[in-house]
Amino acid sequence: MLFLFQDPVGDDQGLAYRYPRAALFQKAGEGYADLLALAGEEREGRLVLKVRLSRYPNPLEGPLGFSLATVALWLDTGEGGEEALLPGLSTPPDQGFEVAYILTGFGGEKRTPTGERTPARVWREGEWVAVDTGIPPGPYGYYGAVGLFDPFAPWYLRPTSPEGGPWTLGAPPGSPPVVDLLAEAPLDQVKAYQTGILKPLRPKGFALKRESLLAFALGGASLLLAFLLRRP
């Protein structure tokens, strides 16, 4: 395993969001949009991301064994990138995403900031939902969010409205259409909702590798300089 980010249990309420009132959602209970973890693995040279939700009710009979949640993942893989993640939610400056993945109980999509969409291979591994990103592992930044599945919405995320409704989330104006954000500390999620800025999570292993390479390069340069200075 390359990394494991754990998200607090039971924080799938946004900022006091109200879930849709339709019986479909009321009968499903709680926890089906509660993000618990994001993990990364390398398989055959490609990055596989795995998401864990608290529960997987499947009233709509999705082939992947769940049907009420939509998971969105954005990866910061290089310089620049798109900073707008969703309406009401952005990245910090200069930490935008270059590729995104949408996971539902009916399949997956890979998206780019230019609007390109291609199918992504998604499957279940026990309590995890896995996606083959098609890219190699790297020192990326990761953004994640979970909302309620809507097959007609741009990101397959059920929209919000101040008054809520049978099929919409009740939330303050301008709120993002997601009920849980990938954040390891509860206060980090609260701050992200309040400011509209979600900070990326970055694996420490890759950061240590970059620092080690830098230290190695500086050490080599020092040895070379010492050798040259000692030459007659």
UniProtKB/TrEMBL annotation:
An example of a Pfam family matching this protein is Glucodextran_C
Q: Which UniProt keywords apply?
A: Membrane, Transmembrane, Transmembrane helix
Q: Where does the signal peptide begin and end?
A: none
* InterPro entries, per the entry: Glucodextran_C
Top-rank taxon, per record: Bacteria
The UniProt transmembrane annotation reads 212-229
Q: Does the keyword Transmembrane helix apply?
A: yes
User: What positions does the domain Glucodextranase-like C-terminal occupy?
Assistant: 3-191
Protein name per Swiss-Prot or TrEMBL: Glucodextranase-like C-terminal domain-containing protein
Q: Which organism is the protein's source?
A: Thermus scotoductus
